[in-house]
Design goal:
7-stranded mixed β-sheet; single chain; about 180 residues; alpha+beta
């Protein structure tokens, strides 16, 4: 199955009339306008280049579920988890479409990954991207599924927490994601 067929199965709105992946901000506008069907995923990149540290398959499509879109754009309240005070889709677009340095790649015991990006969130924390790698989405192929993006204010405490919990931590030197979708 080729990438365009995978995208068609993952999202009814991600490709334009010429079969090209729509920009992240355009997909987000269509999400806000109610054009997503209940099963649609946001397609961030045609691949996962730049996330190959600690075993992530770079060839897989990078996606985000609608529940994650809601979580990362919602303001936090006492009753609801949200990251809208730190992250918005302008920041997400820049992460995936400009050169960004990965500071750390972290893998926990459940084989989930976190990447600390050298870019500041709205709350002035570093940006952390959580990924569930090689996730079977029940459509005949696997994807790299973004499970969260948020600002991490106290990076040193987070790294210490990861060490105490025996997570695999790799300090990265100047690896850029770029916009090679």
């Amino acid at each position: 199955m080729d990438k365009k067929e995978m995208i068609r199965r993952a999202s009814s709105i991600a490709l334009d009339e010429n079969g090209n992946l729509k920009p992240i901000l355009q997909q987000y506008e269509e999400y806000l306008a109610g054009k997503f069907k209940s099963h649609d995923l946001m397609i961030l990149k045609l691949n996962s280049k730049g996330f190959n540290y600690l075993g992530i398959n770079e060839d897989l499509i990078m996606v985000m579920r609608q529940s994650v879109i809601e979580k990362i754009t919602r303001l936090p309240t006492p009753n609801k988890h949200g990251h809208g005070d730190a992250i918005d889709f302008d920041i997400i677009d820049k992460i995936f479409n400009t050169n960004v340095e990965i500071l750390y790649a972290i893998k926990n015991a459940d084989n989930n990954y976190a990447f600390i990006i050298n870019r500041k969130a709205k709350d002035n924390g570093y940006i952390l991207i959580s990924i569930n790698p090689s996730k079977d989405i029940g459509r005949g192929f696997e994807v790299n599924d973004i499970t969260s993006i948020y600002g991490k204010k106290d990076l040193n405490n987070y790294i210490e927490f990861c060490r105490e919990n025996n997570y695999t931590i790799k300090k990265i030197n100047a690896r850029y994601l770029g916009n090679d979708s």
